[in-house]
Specification:
By secondary structure, this protein is of the alpha+beta class. The chain has 3 domains: 2-112, Trigger factor ribosome-binding domain (Alpha-Beta Plaits, 2-Layer Sandwich); 151-241, Chitinase A, domain 3; 250-463, Trigger factor, domain 2 (Orthogonal Bundle). It is built from 15 helices and 12 strands. The radius of gyration is 31 Å and the shape is extended.
């Protein structure tokens, strides 16, 4: 087999492949066996008819089709390996020549990873926020913890912000009842923002038995984007009574004996969250600087795939009904053109980021060990509420295990750049982020490696109770 690689652009190549028919003998053997199983020829058992008999019965063309369809992908992979081509995505094949019993020639156009010249980041310095917790922040955390142990008590007064109400809801659009917007006995915390816009203003000041109406714009369903007249009837009003913030509460809600110990622990937890947020700031700033200083050509087909995936994910909750999706955007004050522009921009940045970090990982010879891959799988499984085995099975079926590996590797590559950056806080003091990004040992696994993972870790840390 002969192959050549023709560079069409910095991100796309054409691979020209020439295969002598002598190399296709195993493909012909498999093709004859497969076709023989499908064709019934008198005098021969299924799968036992000789090649010459098969060809005399069905002709040469079906055999050639079977051989070509099987041989091209395999010979393409062989050519890619021989030419050390770093392909991205699926190739576009074209058969350019078939001379029966002589030669098969085809081309494959495919996106490739571009050559990227990394910038010199020597002496790079960035600034992050100070880690400082205030008494007010600790008090807010304590109040949230007290709320978990609060009790609801019925009150004979008009509803106020923060109260819990039981309500019946109904809605109409142009006089037509909206069934999916009707419910009864719904419990709602006033001010939580978990229901439609305008409901808080309607029920604040209402007492049990009062009925109010208001107009709001629906954001989902068949009437998304349309104005609806909503009727809400308050059935009951309850207020949440919080336990006293004393030693008894500390013993009830945590492992500590005194309220002062509990407050100290909350303060320490807040500090850890803010330390993690420092890591987020450092990571994002370094990445932005890298993207700003580096020219990263974008492979067209890869970008198209990224855009398509993002649009698919956005429309999926609306059963891929683009009209309903457009109405939902309108309800948010956005247009479809604005959404498409945002997706284009986000997709370009995502593709550039992946290619840039892959280049850094290659330069640093970054690898991912089994423990690191397992840790990411465990985290993702917990995030999606499935068992690790089920998550792995799904990832295998969808071909995502390689993507998970690549994400961890990119995160480690970015962490290596952050480790080489001088990070100072707003007060001008140098910040040690080695706890989050590792100390440079290959065995270290950076805690802040990728936006979604890290931000969820911050949220989970803040949400834990001291007893956890």
């Amino acid at each position: 087999m002969k192959s050549t690689v023709e560079q069409l652009s910095p991100t796309r190549v054409k691979i020209n492949v020439e295969v002598p028919f002598d190399e296709l003998k195993p493909n012909f053997d498999r093709a004859y066996r497969k076709i023989a199983q499908q064709v019934r020829i008198p005098g021969f058992r299924p799968g036992k008819a000789p090649a010459r008999v098969l060809e005399s019965r069905i002709g040469r063309a079906p055999v050639l089709d079977e051989v070509v369809n099987e041989a091209i992908p395999a010979k393409y992979i062989e050519a890619v390996r021989a030419g050390e081509v770093r392909t991205l995505g699926q190739p576009e094949f074209e058969v350019t020549k078939i001379e029966d019993r002589e030669v098969l020639e085809f081309t494959a156009e495919v996106d490739v990873r571009p050559e990227i010249e990394l910038p010199d980041l020597e002496g790079l310095e960035i600034s992050v926020d100070d880690v400082e917790t205030t008494d007010t922040e600790v008090a807010e955390q304590l109040d949230e913890l007290r709320a978990r142990f609060g009790t609801l008590t019925g009150v004979e007064r008009p509803a106020e912000n923060g109260d819990f109400v039981s309500v019946d809801l109904s809605a109409t659009v142009d006089g037509e009842t909206v069934e999916e917007a009707s419910t009864s006995g719904l419990s709602y915390e006033i001010g939580s923002g978990q229901l439609v816009d305008g409901i808080d203003e309607a029920i604040i000041g209402a007492s049990a038995g009062d009925t109010k109406t208001f107009t709001t714009q629906l954001v989902a369903g068949d009437h998304a984007g349309k104005d609806a007249e909503v009727t809400v009837t308050v059935q009951s009003v309850k207020q949440r009574e919080l336990p006293e913030a004393d030693d008894e509460f500390a013993q009830l809600a945590s492992e500590f004996d005194t309220i002062d110990e509990l407050k100290a622990d909350l303060s320490e937890r807040l500090a850890r969250v803010k330390k993690m947020q420092q890591g987020v700031q450092a990571r994002d700033q370094v990445l932005d600087i890298l993207l700003e200083r580096t020219e990263v050509p974008i492979p067209e087909k890869v970008l198209e795939g990224e855009i398509e995936n993002r649009k698919h994910d956005a429309v999926h909750p609306f059963d891929h009904d683009e009209e309903q999706f457009a109405k939902a955007l309108e309800a948010e004050g956005r247009t479809l053109d604005e959404f498409n522009a945002e997706v284009q921009e986000e997709s370009e940045k995502a593709v550039r980021t992946q290619l840039l970090l892959d280049t850094i990982a290659d330069k640093e010879q970054t690898s991912v060990n089994d423990a690191e891959l397992t840790e990411r799988i465990m985290y993702q499984a917990q995030r999606f509420g499935v068992s690790p085995d089920e998550y792995v099975q799904r990832a295998q079926q969808s071909g995502q295990l390689t993507a998970i590996y690549a994400d961890v590797r990119r995160g480690k590559a970015l962490a290596s750049v952050v480790r080489g950056t001088t990070v100072k806080n707003a007060s001008g003091e140098e910040v040690d982020l080695s706890e989050l990004f590792g100390a440079g040992d290959e065995a270290d696994t950076p805690a802040v490696v990728e936006g979604t993972v890290e931000e969820t870790q911050v949220t989970e840390e803040a949400a834990k109770t001291p007893a956890e």
